[in-house]
Amino acid sequence: MTSLRETLRSHLALIPATATITIFMVLPILIILVYSFLAPGDYGGGKPEFSTNAYQRLLFQRDLFDQMVFDPAYLKIAFRSVWIAVVSVVGCLLLGFPVAYYIACQPEERRNIFLLLITIPFWTNLLVRTYCWILVLRDTGLVNVGLMRMGLIDEPLTLLYTEGAVALGLIYTYVPFMVLPIYASLERMDRRLIEAARDLYSNRWVALRYVVIPLAMPGIIAGAILVFIPALGAFIAPDLLGGGKNLMLGSLVQLQFSSARNWPFGSALAMVIMAMVLMCLFFYARSAKKNGGGIKH
Amino acid sequence: MTQKNDIRWLPGFNWVTLFFFLFLYLPLIILVVFSFNASRSATVWSGFSLEWYVKAFANDDIQRATKNSLIIAVFATVFATTMATMAALALSRNRAVKNKSLFGGVLILPLMVPEIVTAVATLTFFSAIGLSLGLGNIIIAHSVFCIPFAYLPIRARLDGMDESLEAAARDLYSNKWDTLRLITLPLLMPGILSGAMLAFIISLDDFIITLMVAEAGSTTLPIYIYSLVRVGITPEVNAISTVLLGVSVLIVTAAYLVEKKK
Question: DSSP 3-state helix, strand, coil percentages of chain A (rounded to 5)?
Fold first, then answer.
């Protein structure tokens, strides 16, 4: 009995934080897992009867004769979300890798200034940052007006409300998540490894391919996951820059809980996102084990 | 700059880095510049003016939303930072605690779950238990996701601190609580402050979770800005967004300086 009491005492300081997260985050996610197996209520919420309708709706739709027919509408949205998220990851990698490498090669004081400059936008309001791109991309925005003034185009290009605009917004938002882990894995890179490669007659790019990139791999994988997860569930960028017609999973979930009032279906969609996230984390844990630890926080 | 004769030099990487920082900051600079524009345009400059700031500050809805945002952020920061400090102390200093990695994992869980999932899960939970406290609902939701942002800098500071000072105090017959009050907490203060500041701006800037959880009358600043943006671009949005941007940049820079101070 004493040992139980002592365990409780030593854990006392941990209880407020972990209990808060468990009650207000873990439990609610379990509740929407239950909700995803309920029938939709008439005015939002759910009816207390077991139903797999919400999951069937992902693939099938009831036709006029009450038959279940295959309907790829939601599958398309899921694929589009994954596709846009993948494009964002690749964009972040192409832009972020040279930046991370360049910063890692700088003297220490300068590195810290660069890192602060990268983190500042991350802490500013996501809504405001995305809104800035409307100013840049819309028909009367700076890009179109600039191009027209230069006489390169006669009519404004459709830049806003496209999938490209959504991907651009996501890259803009999440590229720091790619730069920072890659930087962390290159920060203590031993320059003698590159010297050795160069001594053995490899040129700069071969050294990059066979020395630097393998060293950066744990950072690249961590960065890819850190970009992919929030991009998949993004709401603001698809909503403001995609104009609602380029629905992604995040905006579809939000829609089910607001105007569409189909909570079980929204919950099922949220569970689909969670399943993809868990798959990513599982993949990360496995690759981190293989790489011997991966990125330390 | 890295010199061309450095063995690690790769041609073009300096230009990519320059482009990267332009890409990161130009949209923000455009927003700030045009918030001071005399005309309604956000593309053509027609002189300096504070008109939109005056209009934005005089707006009753904006005042109310700002007040809500500040109340929520202050409470969420106090709750999250207190809980995070206790947890960080237990995990870093208490050797009796088992399963440290499990507890550490739970503490950073809010960073792993996509915000939209947290948002709808919290909404469903609050409606299932019938919780309706107005701003209180939002404060609870914010406290949860602010915990990891407060916890990580505090824990990092604790792990980097020299434990021998605390050991010396204990050797000189100071009891546990005096050691905590007179040695550990003062040394930890920069970590606590920077954690609190990060929690504060994360709460101030949150949009999607607040959007789902907020009841009528609990509008916060980001939600008000969103409702304006959906209708169209107005110079008042530029002005109020610039203020929000300025507050975040100020606080995060301060947090950085506090943390760096030894």
Answer: 70, 5, 25
With CB atoms and an 8 Å threshold, state whether B229 touches A95.
no
**pTM for the full model?**
0.88
- Say if the Cβ atoms of A270 and B121 lie within 8 Å: yes
Is the pLDDT reported for residue A245 higher than 70? no
B110 contacts on A by Cβ (under 8 Å)? 21, 25
pLDDT category of residue A293 using cuts at 50, 70 and 90: very low
A227, A163, A88, A83: which is closest to B114 by C-alpha?
A227
Domains within chain B, CATH numbers bracketed: 52-260 (1.10.3720.10)
> H or E stretch including A61?
strand A60-62
CATH of the domain at A256: 1.10.3720.10
- pLDDT at residue B12 in the model: 84
CB contacts of A134 in chain B (<8 Å) are: 229, 233
Q: Is the pLDDT of residue A291 over 80?
A: no
Answer whether B259's CB lies under 8 Å from B191's CB: yes
Domain range for A267 is 79-290
Query: Cβ of B213 under 8 Å from any chain A Cβ?
Result: no
Which ipTM did the prediction report?
0.87
Strand partners, A167: none
Identify whether A69 is part of a domain. Answer: no
